[in-house]
Write a structure and sequence with these properties.
single chain, alpha+beta, two-stranded antiparallel sheet, 8 helices, 5 strands, disordered N terminus
Amino acid sequence: MALRALTNVKTLGRLRHQQIRGLQTFTLPDLSYDYGALEPAISAEIMQLHHQKHHQTYITNYNKALEQLDDAIAKGDASTAVKLQSAIKFNGGGHVNHSIFWKNLAPPREGGGEPPHGSLGWAIDQHFGSMEKLVAKMNAEGAAVQGSGWVWLAVDKELKRLVVETTANQDPLVTKGASLVPLVGIDVWEHAYYLQYKNVRPDYLKNIWKVINWKYASEVYEKECP
C-alpha cells in the first residue's frame, strides 16, 4: 500500500514539552511502528489519519486552551478560566487517551496479540475467569458505548484489582476514579475504524485484539502491583 511509504512516523515529533512564553505545551508523540505495521487489523490509512490528523488536532486545541487559560488567569478573568475547563478536559483527555492507545498497540511480528503471561495473566484469570471472558466483556461494553468513547482494562492500584470501565467522549480514565490506572484502552470513536469497518464496531473490536500490546500492559501492571 502506498501509505507504507509515507513519511516515517518517527519524524512527526516526540511526546515532549515545549515552552511558549513560559507556558508548558505538548507535541505529537512518535509511534514505535510504521502506519502499515498493524495491517490487516488496522489499515495504514486509518493509522495515518488517526495519528497525524485526529491526535494532532487534540494537541493543537489543548495547547490553545492552555494559552487562553494562562491569559485569563493573568488577567484575573475567572469567568473565562471556568469556561475553558470543558475544552481542556476534552482536548487534554484526547491527548492523554491517544498517547496510551498507541502504546497499547504492537505489530504481530513484535508480539502484538500475544496473550499476557506472568502476574497480569494470572490476575485476568482470577478476576474474569479467563482471557476469553475478559475479551468478551470488553467487546460487549465497547460495542454498547453510545456515541463515542473508550473501553478500558484498568487496575485499581488501591484495591489491587482489575476492572473494566468505559468513558464517554475523550474523558480520561482518571475521571472514573483517581486510583484507576489504564492497562489497555480501546478507542471506539468512529474515526478509529470507520474507513475500514464502516459502522460495524463489533468487527473492529474483534480484530483489534490481534495487535494489542500485552507486554506494555504487563509492565504497567507489574509497576503498580509489584
